[in-house]
Amino acid sequence: MPDCCIVGGGVIGLSIARELARRGRSVSVVSRNTLRKSASWAAGGIFPAQPRDTITDRNGTPIERLTQYSDRLHEQWTKSLLEETGIDNGFRRCGSLAVATTEEAASQLQADEQKWKRLRVKHESLSPTDISDIEPALRGAVATRQVRRAFYLPDETQVRPPRHLAALRSACLTNGVEIFDSHHVRNFEFDSSRIVAINIEDRDSTLLPICADQFCIAAGAWSEQLLQKLDIKLPTKPWRGQILLHKVKPGMLRHIINFGSGFDYMIPRDDGHLLIGSTIEDVGFDSSTTPSALSRMNKLAYDLLPDVRAQEPISSWAGLRPGSPDGLPTVGRIPSADNAWLATGHYRSGFHLSTGTAHLISDSMCGSPTEMQLDLFSTDRAGLNGSAQPTK
Fold first, then answer.
1. Are 82 and 387 in contact (CB under 8 A)?
2. How far apart are CA 386 and CA 236, in angstroms?
3. pTM for the whole thing?
4. What pLDDT, in 10s, does the model give residues 200-237?
5. C-alpha dihedral over 175, 180, 181, 185, to 10 degrees?
6. Contacts 24+ apart (CB under 8 A), 83-88
7. How many whole angstroms separate alpha carbon 97 and alpha carbon 257?
8. Secondary structure letter of residue 43 according to DSSP
9. Which domains, from first to last, does the chain contain?
10. Is 34 helix (H, G, I), strand (E, B) or coil?
11. Are 323 and 306 in contact (CB under 8 A)?
């Protein structure tokens, strides 16, 4: 019987499993999908720029503090995962340009600048000449005034989700974690106020009980359905994000490009792959792509990057992000069970917040002091009632 059972095999679940295993716990992970079909695999992998000092801003909002905490841990995790598995997860502090292509977006950048100042995030306002010098691929868009304003954020980071997930999974398996892919949780078994087992079934409807001392639900957009089996109402709505993939000459685009509201972006990889995303769509559990969304994203690239116009995209995909009403993840104990925890609702920041979430959950499950107060992210916090809506 394992010490801990994690329900959810995406970046949050695997990160928690890996951290618990490193602390000497025996762990099982139950995943409804294979890794390639998970929402985490479909992510873009952008980590917004954070302050480079080592002091978490105690006056920041809960999500800002969790983001800073997680951001500091990512460099440590990247190094240790490479040492453990030999897999380079693509963590690069490549920098970004925040670009406005409309006057409305330019006004939004002014508000973003005030936030960067408050958070001590390094940033620089760019003149048209500066934009062309820092990112030559945008020279034509600057000349035709398609780029109205831009800021340079040197500390923005990217990671390659499929590689990071492969490294996490490899590290988990090396540390003895047992992973059940393509299994659904059918029900929970209780003894008084403790969960003693979950019954899972595979695609052939074969039932398998998994007993453990502790349980953690980290099932992303599917967490709400699971929690209903525990008589807990937690709004966790899936929000579809579509991504388009091009192949360009390596180095053609040097930096991440973020547009306007922050929902649209272009991410250049070292090998010339160029990701263009992303949509925010309320379509339930439909993870298919649509011609209209892909066409819009293609136009975004075609308008700004002439070198992309001569070729067709090589792939596209979509993932379902778990949103919450107040934009905060839910991290901490499950109130209806003495031995159960919850980590969900990370919306568009699951990858970035995965390390901090893993440490907070593992600290709590191991009875250690946590870096942050978990009641900030509890199921009974103010603002969690109502419909789950996305926030920036």
1. no
2. 10
3. 0.95
4. 998 888 889 999 999 999 999 999 999 998 888 888 99
5. -140
6. 84/167, 84/170, 84/171, 84/174, 85/166, 85/167, 85/170, 85/171, 85/174, 87/163, 87/166, 87/167, 87/170, 88/163
7. 5
8. -
9. 4-88+161-235+326-377 (3.50.50.60), 96-154+237-323 (3.30.9.10)
10. coil
11. no
324 contacts 384 by C-beta, under 8 angstroms: yes
Alpha-carbon gap, residue 158 to 219, rounded angstroms: 24
The DSSP-derived string for 148-207 is -EEEEETT-EE--HHHHHHHHHHHHHHTT-EEE-S-EEEEEEEETTEEEEEEEE-TT--E
Note the pLDDT tens digit of each residue in 33-72: 887 778 899 999 999 999 876 555 566 889 999 999 999 9
Whats the size of the chain, residue-wise?
392
Query: Which pair of structure tokens corresponds to residue 67?
Result: 């983001």
**Interatomic CA distance for residues 336 and 387, integer angstroms:** 22
Q: Are residues 238 and 284 in contact, defined by beta-carbon separation less than 8 angstroms?
A: yes
Question: 11-22 and 350-365 helices cross at what angle (nearest 10)?
Answer: 40
The candidate with the shortest Cα–Cα distance to 194, out of 1, 28, 332, 339, is 339
Q: What is the residue type of 22?
A: R
**For residues 242 and 298, what is the distance between their CA atoms, to the nearest angstrom?**
12
